[in-house]
Amino acid sequence: MKSEILYPGAFPMARVHLASGESLKAESGAMVAASPTIDVESRMEGGLLKALSRKMLAGEHFFFQTLRATRGEGEVLLAPTVPGEIVLFEMDGVNEYLVQKDGFLAGAETITIESKMQSFTRGLLGGEGFFILRVGGNGTVILNSFGAVHRLELKPEEEYVVDNAHLVAWSATTSYKIERAASGWISSLTSGEGFVCRFRGPGLVMIQTRNPRGFGAWIRQFMPVTE
Amino acid sequence: MRLTVVIDDDSPNALCFGGAFPPSGAPCLATVTADGLQLVFPAHPSADPRRVAFDRLAVGAGGFDHDHLVVKWDEEGTPFTLYLKDPDVIRAFRTRASGTLSAELHRTAEEVRRRRMRRRAFLWAGLAMVGGLFLALWLGSDRVAEFAVARIPVSWEESIGEASYRQFIMGHTVVEAGPAVEAIDVIAARLTGALQPSPYRFQISVVNSGVVNAFALPGGRVVVFTGLLRKADSAEEVAGVLAHEVNHVLKRHAMVRVAKRLGLVGVVTMLTGNEQGLAGLIKDLGIELATLKFGREQETEADEEGLRLLHRARVAPEGMVSFFERLAEQDAPQLEILSSHPMSEGRAERLRAEIARLPRMTPEPVPVDWVHVRASLRAP
Questions:
Q1: pTM of the complete model
Q2: Per the count of CB atoms within 10 A, which of A226, A227, B149, B185 is most buried?
């Protein structure tokens, strides 16, 4: 499986080349086009209950698609729904990443994906919902973001504060705490940041340069609501 | 002699941080020997394999779920950190370690257990809280909705009602002056003069339409259609309808309906949000306040309170009953006012019984020449 990003920037697309017999897991609806040698199988990753929990609780689509090169090699073009960067990275079998629910676009067949329940405070205040995806194993993972992706590289014990709406993915070796952005409840709410995550290294934290919720609120002000 | 406990294969099972290793960690193969840890870096050929004795190690728990054993040591002033997750390696590590390290491991394991317990307890408490709130909404939705509505400032109701009124009149003509408007003003003054002090300012508009209906919006706007005025035989009958509508406003019936339709989100918005948020929610759900149907209990309450208001204003309360009864007999169900206020046997009886219960009162006629008012209203 070889992958590359076409049109890097706001409207990118991922091209994945599959050798005969190879397959790829993709977020359902992510496929834009594919060679005629590729078959699409919808499969519930991790069984019905896990798929249901992803659907009901993580808001994730019910199925991941499996795109398999059954009749010889071929390529698949994949794109996310929202404008923003796509990043590829290689999983080494040891590192695991936690991915917020809209961040996963596709991955090699050899990677593992499971829904992970967060702690109550993280689920309630973290902004990613109660369930996130835990991605591990070996092979390529393709993530997407809203805006561009910025990598924060944290050394052991190094801390960084991230507005939770900007989170895309983070190493399982990092830990984080939810905190109020400003001291005092009133200033937390009025500073526009609300709750933030204080990450502690070591590991990578991938953040998106735009805030989907903030963008939604910005759009909403132009829609006639009261009159 | 080296005693290797874990060698399944030579694929990495741990991540090493520090020194020249990449920020995402260097995958390494960690094995536990008799006197310490041995690390090999297959992906980093330039990194020397190393052995670290147990007495140089410090341990703790770390990672997203506190499911990693974090091992730290120092090499000539450079700190290194190893993240271990493989349960076999961790078990071997615990078996081999001794002295202070063993005590530290024990403490770490205790801490992780405590954290997991606490997390589970929090989760259950949270789920119970959310479940309880849902149950409260489901079982006692009326009471929860009323509780939330009671906390809405009147100014929100006014602006939501006003917006809804503006939207409604865009497709209609408001009658600005004339005998009908004057008559409504006289009736409205009689009724509002008899109200208990309330934060609402009532504004009653006459709208040119053949539809036989009247409705109230949150905040004090009431709309009466000329169709209804043409059907009425007296000012007292119109006063009956208005007394009923005014009490929908006073009892905040529209907001209670909205709270129930919006459910948990609506209640939370009412308690913590702002009017823009609430107006947005109402709009999102496509709730038309102008055609909102009230519940049977709300209609009964508006009837009974309406009769009491008529009584206090010294307006003959029979007008309310006779108007609805006559409409029901004459025009069958296509009249809009009857679809929202069905004139069942029960309702008429209840109204008459309620009137009988009120103290004796000599009504004062409403000084309006109703024949003249009716004549002034052309069919639209």
A1: 0.58
A2: B149
